[in-house]
């Protein structure tokens, strides 16, 4: 593996370029051979090249957005899904573009055929390349150095990616750096768990000096430092952390996007509301919606709206519990709504009212916030912005991601906030709707 390590980026780039060219070539044949001939104003050489160029730019954008270029990073199934999703949105926009040029809607069947052909190409090409890639770059043999906080969930996550990593041995940092060094030298890389900063820094410095790959579990302070601004007023480096939340301009633009986005969402989602309401009513004739107290910015309580996915009086004992895998309280239609996250659709009314935002940390129940805060004192820091329908933790985490890791993801969003980040997370949300791993329940 080390022999070809320096060529890894070139190999990945070659995969992306060849795949992009193959997909664009298929579209080129369809455009020149069919759509350009039946459109109202046919293009000639330069016009055809322009249409092909626009398709290439759109495809590259959505591939980058949804992770279609992350070969060797995502699982094969996730990678293929990301690429097909990118092609779907590219073709959808291209159809609207062709309709605008023709001043009338044309038959979408050729583009649907194009989508099927591209999906087959993606599946074959990606599967073949992943097989070759895994042969050239086998899983790294790793040493996990554990800390005081339990790292069992970290081990489970890493073991789930046996195509990339294999934890060969686990040791605790308390053995001391002198006894750890001989162990570190035996492996392809080191995973540094949640341990005191002094011991972690010793391991990090040793790995850096000896060109050993290291993976660190970040602390809350690491996320705050990483997102600080560097001051160059003096000859000694200083990191400035303002800690004031969003600026007035950011708040204004964010609220404007929320109003426009929620209004469009209310209009577009009306048919879904009717269908889902009928399905819930037919299940047990109970109420379609339910409200629950949640916390938003600065810990302000509000009533959240959701489609009911559980049996009536699911918590009749008054004890709040997160849904577990195979939870008998969940209705049959509720499982579908939870898996696709459509149960959260009524929250667009909370957004329109200003209680929530399109993007932000997941709104939690006061009882759970109190419980999490008792264990993690920094947990309320995630409420420096309004709660959101989607967000950084919702996109990059899972339903059963630990509260401590959710806090880190939410702080990463707050500390790196920008309008472009919000837009990216909004566009990323469709990808996670149909990923089972994003909606896994808590292990019971």
What does this structure look like?
Strand 3, helix 7 and strand 4 form a beta-alpha-beta unit. The protein contains 16 helices and 10 strands. The protein is an alpha/beta fold and 444 residues long. It starts with 7 loop residues before the first helix and ends in a 12-residue tail after the last helix.
- The N- and C-terminal alpha carbons lie at a distance of 40 Å
Compressed to H and E, one letter per element, the order equals HHHHEHEHEHEHEEHHEEHHEHEHHH
Shape: globular
What is the multimeric organization of the chains shown?
A: single chain
Write out the strand line-up for the largest beta sheet, numbering strands in chain order: 2-1-3-4
What's the overall average pLDDT, rounded?
Answer: 87
Overview in brief:
This protein is α/β, with parallel strands linked by helices and 444 residues long. It has helices at 8-38, 45-66, 76-102, 109-136, 152-159, 177-184, 197-209, 220-226, 248-268, 270-284, 332-340, 347-353, 366-375, 392-396, 403-415, 419-432, and strands at residues 140-146, 165-172, 189-192, 213-216, 229-231, 238-240, 289-295, 301-307, 357-359, 388-390.
Q: What's the helix and strand layout?
A:
Elements: H1 8-38, H2 45-66, H3 76-102, H4 109-136, E1 140-146, H5 152-159, E2 165-172, H6 177-184, E3 189-192, H7 197-209, E4 213-216, H8 220-226, E5 229-231, E6 238-240, H9 248-268, H10 270-284, E7 289-295, E8 301-307, H11 332-340, H12 347-353, E9 357-359, H13 366-375, E10 388-390, H14 392-396, H15 403-415, H16 419-432
Parallel strand pairs: 1-2, 1-3, 3-4, 9-10
Antiparallel strand pairs: 5-6, 7-8
């Amino acid at each position: 593996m080390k022999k070809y390590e320096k060529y890894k980026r070139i190999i990945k780039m070659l995969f992306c370029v060849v795949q992009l060219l193959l997909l664009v070539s298929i579209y080129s044949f369809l455009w020149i051979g069919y759509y350009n001939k039946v459109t109202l104003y046919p293009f000639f050489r330069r016009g055809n090249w322009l249409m092909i160029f626009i398709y290439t730019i759109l495809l590259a954008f959505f591939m980058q957005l949804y992770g279609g270029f992350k070969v060797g990073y995502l699982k094969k199934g996730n990678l293929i899904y990301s690429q097909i999703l990118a092609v779907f949105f590219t073709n959808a926009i291209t159809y609207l573009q062709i309709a605008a040029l023709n001043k009338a809607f044309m038959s979408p069947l050729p583009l649907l055929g194009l989508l099927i052909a591209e999906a087959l190409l993606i599946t074959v090409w990606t599967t073949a390349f992943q097989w070759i890639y895994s042969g050239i770059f086998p899983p790294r043999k790793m040493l996990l150095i554990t800390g005081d906080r339990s790292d069992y969930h970290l081990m489970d996550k890493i073991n789930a990616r046996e195509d990339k990593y294999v934890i060969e041995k686990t040791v605790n940092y308390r053995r001391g750096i002198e006894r750890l060094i001989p162990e570190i030298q035996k492996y392809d890389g080191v995973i540094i768990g949640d341990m005191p900063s002094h011991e972690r820094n010793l391991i990090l410095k040793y790995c850096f000096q000896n060109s050993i790959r290291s993976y660190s579990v970040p602390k809350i302070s690491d996320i705050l430092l990483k997102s600080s601004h560097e001051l160059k007023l003096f000859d000694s480096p200083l990191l400035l952390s303002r800690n004031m939340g969003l600026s007035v301009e950011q708040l204004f633009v964010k609220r404007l996007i929320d109003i426009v986005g929620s209004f469009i969402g209310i209009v577009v989602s009306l048919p879904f509301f009717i269908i889902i309401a009928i399905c819930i009513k037919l299940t047990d004739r109970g109420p379609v919606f339910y409200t629950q107290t949640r916390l938003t910015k600065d810990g302000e309580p509000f009533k959240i709206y959701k489609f009911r996915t559980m049996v009536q009086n699911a918590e009749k004992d008054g004890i709040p519990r997160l849904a577990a895998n195979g939870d008998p309280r969940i209705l049959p239609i509720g499982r579908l709504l939870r898996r696709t996250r459509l149960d959260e659709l009524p929250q667009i009314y909370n957004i329109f009212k200003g209680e929530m935002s399109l993007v932000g940390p997941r709104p939690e129940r006061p009882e759970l916030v109190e419980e999490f805060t008792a264990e993690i004192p920094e947990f309320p820091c995630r409420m420096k912005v309004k709660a959101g329908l989607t967000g950084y933790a919702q996109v990059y985490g899972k339903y059963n991601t630990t509260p401590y890791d959710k806090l880190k993801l939410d702080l990463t969003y707050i500390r790196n906030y920008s309008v472009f980040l919000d837009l990216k997370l909004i566009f990323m949300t469709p990808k996670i709707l149909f990923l089972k791993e994003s909606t896994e329940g808590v292990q019971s």
